[in-house]
Specification:
Butyryl-CoA Dehydrogenase, subunit A, domain 3, 159 residues, three-stranded antiparallel beta sheet, 72% helix, mainly alpha, 3 strands
Length: 159
């Protein structure tokens, strides 16, 4: 498999952006211009669990933390080791198909801000975390598509 530096750079940039994006505030909410609170993606996932919303905890946790982390780790492994056969390329193609759902969090934050802005006493602002997280998802998705293309090409070249 062709291990180009662009795909490696995309992945090596996406990984730290993803981690930092989970911890950084994605939304800042001010109520009546006095009370302010910032929330990260991890705060949201943990809040669902603490409030007993286990279904939301599972859905958001899987699509926010688990799938993007597995995707970045798998694609980085496939790229780093140059794997073109076996389980790894197949898993990359699965991640390629489901990667569009990785931006679910960005949509949820955007809808939350839209709803909160409709209130006269509440103001919500987007945080750096959502920009970093969104960037990581986009970069890792591009890298995933590149790796999936090359693994398909390697498989077709053998036939």
């Amino acid at each position: 498999m062709k291990r180009d530096w662009i795909t490696g750079l995309l992945l090596l940039t996406a990984a730290p952006l993803f981690v930092v994006g989970l911890w950084m505030p994605v939304i800042s909410v001010r109520s009546m211009l006095v009370f302010a609170r910032e929330f990260s993606l991890l705060d949201g996932v943990v809040a669902f669990f603490r409030n007993g919303d286990y279904f939301l905890f599972a859905i958001v946790g899987v699509f926010t933390i688990l799938l993007p982390a597995l995707k970045i780790g798998t694609v980085l492994t496939v790229w780093g080791l140059g794997l073109t056969h076996g389980w790894a390329p197949r898993l990359v193609r699965v991640f390629e198909r489901i990667s569009r759902w990785s931006m679910l969090d960005v949509l949820v934050v955007a809808l939350t801000i839209l709803l909160l802005e409709g209130s006269l006493v509440t103001r919500a602002d987007i945080g750096l975390g959502i920009i970093l997280f969104g960037s990581a998802v986009i970069l890792s998705t591009i890298a995933t598509h590149r790796i999936a293309h090359w693994t398909r090409q390697a498989r077709d070249d053998e036939v």
